[in-house]
Amino acid sequence: MIEKDFVTEGLRRTRIDEYLQSELERAGYGGMEVQVTPLGTMVVVYAERPGMVIGRGGKTVRGITQNLKTKFDLENPQVEVKEVDVPELNPKIMAYKIANMLQRGMHFRRVAYTTIRRIMGSGAQGVEVTISGKIRGARSATAKFSDGYIKKCGEPSIRLVKEGFATVQLKPGVLGIYVRIMPPGAVLPDKVDILAPTIEETVIETEETVIETEETVEVEVTEEPLESTEEVELVESEEELEELEESEEEIEETEEVSEVVEESEEEEVSEDVPEETDVVSEEEVSEDVPEETDVVSEEGEVSEDVEAAEETETEPESSEKPEKSE
Fold first, then answer.
1. CA-CA distances (angstroms) from residue 93 to 147, 162, 181, 309?
2. Which residues contact 138 (CB under 8 A, 6 or more apart)?
C-alpha cells in the first residue's frame, strides 16, 4: 500500500539522520537532506566544520557513502557536504553545544541563558530551551527558558519553527536537551502590512512635477540673461576702446598746445635776456665810477621815476570810482 511506502521511507530517513549524527557529532552535525534523482540518491549533509566530515583524503566521506549503500539500501548514494552559514540559528548544533557544556560540569541555568543570548544576538525572532532530567537532585525535573516570540501550536509551529534534540550522560542520569528556534526570515500568517494612502502619493507627485517645472523655467530664464550679458560685455568693450582712442587724441592735442606754449615762452625769455645784460653792464659801470655823489643822484632819479609811474596808475582808478557811485 502507498501508506506503508511513506512510513518506510520516513523510518529510513530517520535512521540515516541518527547514523549521521552519531558519526559526525564532533564535526557539528546540523542536519541532512535526501534527494532522489535518476542518477542516484543525493544526500546533502550540513555541518559546522565540513573538513571533519570529508576527512583526510576523503576517507570519512567514502566510508559514509559505503555504509549508506550497504546498511540503508540506497541506490548509488552520493554525499555532498555544505557548511552552515550561521551555526547559532541551527537548533541541532546549539543542542549539541549545550550537551558539551553540561558534560564539562557547568550549571544548567548559566548554560541555558548564555545559549539564548547567543541565539537572539544572531537575529532570531524567538527561542526556547528545555532541559529535562535529574538536574537538581535525585528527582527528575524540567526547566524551560525562552526569549522573544515563538509559535507553539498550529501549522506555523510545524512549518516555521526549527527543532533540535540532544542527550548527555551525567552521573545522576541522562539529560535531554530540546531547542526550538524561530528564524529571522519567518513570516507569520497573521502579519498585516498597512499601506500608505494613495492620495498623498499623488499629491507628492504633483508637487514634485510643479517643482521640476519651476526649476526648468528658472534655468531657461537664467540662460537668456547670460546671452544678453555677453552682448553687453562686447558693447562695453567696444565703447572702452573708443574712449581710449579719444583720450589718446586729446592727450596728443594737449601735448601740441603745451609745445606751442613752451616755444612762445622761450621766445619771450630770449627777448628779456639782453635787457638784463644791459642792466648788469650799467651796474658794473656804476661800480667802476669812483664818485659816490653821482650814484646817489642816479638812485634818486630812479626813485622819482617809480613814484611818477605809481601816481599815473592811481589816477585812472580814482576816476573810475565816482562813475560807479553814480
1. 19, 12, 12, 140
2. 172
Query: For residue 4, is pLDDT > 90?
Result: no
With beta carbons less than 8 A apart as the criterion, state whether 91 and 180 touch: yes
| Domain range summary for the chain, segments of one domain joined by + | 2-84, 89-182, 198-289
Q: What is the CATH number of domain 2-84?
A: 3.30.300.20
Distance CA 76, CA 164 (A): 29
**pTM (2 d.p.):** 0.56
For residue 89, the 8-state DSSP code is G
The phi and psi torsions of 125 (rounded to 5 degrees) equal -75, -35
- Is residue 307 scored above 70 in pLDDT? no
- Average confidence score pLDDT of the chain: 77
Number of neighbouring beta carbons within 10 Å of residue 48: 20
Q: List pLDDT tens digits, range 182-222.
A: 999 888 888 888 988 887 555 455 566 666 676 665 545 44
Alpha-helical (H) ranges within 144-197 are 155-159
Q: What does the DSSP 8-state code read for residue 84?
A: -
Strand order in the sheet with 141-148: 141-148, 126-133, 174-182, 162-169
Which class is domain 89-182?
A: alpha beta
Instruction: Tell me how far apart the alpha carbons of residues 23 and 60 are, in angstroms, rounded to a whole number.
Output: 9
CA distance 203 to 211: 12
What is the C-alpha to C-alpha distance for residues 232 and 56, in angstroms, rounded to an integer?
Answer: 87
Task: Say whether 89-182 and 2-84 share the same fold.
Answer: no
User: Per residue in 252-268, pLDDT tens?
Assistant: 878 777 777 777 777 76
The CA-CA-CA angle for residues 108, 114, 119, to 5°, reads 125
**What does the alpha-carbon distance between residue 313 and residue 298 come to, in Å, rounded to a whole number?**
23
